[in-house]
Design brief:
Layout lengths: L14 H7 L1 E3 L6 E5 L3 E5 L10 E12 L5 E13 L5 E6 L4 E2 L1 E12 L2 E12 L1 H6 L5 E7 L4 E6 L1 H11 L6
Antiparallel strand pairs: 1-2, 2-4, 3-4, 4-5, 5-9, 6-7, 6-10, 8-9, 10-11
Helix pairs in contact: 1-3
């Protein structure tokens, strides 16, 4: 789960701190410039009799700007590590209001097992338009990731994060 830029994440980060933490990958070998925001880390305890799903989610915004067209493609990257008896199999995401967002499964697998409990890692991306990000710069946003197992995980991105990220990835509202 290393698809996000690393930055000490002491919530809430100011837009300036987020902007300073955005990494820019610009190589003459690529047709796109890649922007990667700092990690948003959230620890979750699900409870239950066996407290099976202690989970950590790491998320960040990332974008690819095409050199020739200037078109920006955006994604909320999410990596979730959790303890359970089986993979959750995340396969869809919804925006607030119920709209389904384009979902890409990136990786899933077993990290470690002890007895019949394992630590699993699942990584996925949720596509977001530049207009969506601009519209949520003052409010932030949340997505709900849905798994075949029935598990639903909400990932929130603050207004400060969106503002700071857009300062670097889409200055002056460039799409």
């Amino acid at each position: 789960m290393s698809a996000c830029a690393t930055l000490p994440n002491t919530p809430p980060l100011s837009p300036d701190a987020v902007a300073a933490g955005v990494s820019v990958e610009d190589s003459t070998f690529d047709k796109e410039i890649k922007y990667v925001g700092p990690s948003i880390t959230e620890n979750r305890e699900c409870g239950g009799p066996l407290n099976l799903c202690n989970a950590t989610s790491i998320s960040c915004l990332r974008s690819w700007k095409h050199r020739d067209t200037g078109v920006l493609t955006n994604q909320l990257y999410v990596g979730i590590s959790y303890g359970d008896r089986r993979l959750r199999l995340y396969d869809a995401a919804n925006l607030e209001g119920g709209e389904q967002a384009p979902f890409t499964s990136i990786d899933q697998g077993v990290h470690d097992c002890s007895g019949d409990l394992c630590t699993y890692v699942e990584e996925f991306g949720v596509a977001l338009t530049s207009d969506f990000l601009a519209a949520h710069a003052q409010t932030g946003f949340s997505i709900r990731a849905n798994a075949k197992s029935g598990t639903e995980t909400v990932v929130a991105v603050s207004a400060n994060y969106v503002q700071g990220y857009l300062r670097v990835a889409a200055p002056s509202g460039a799409h």
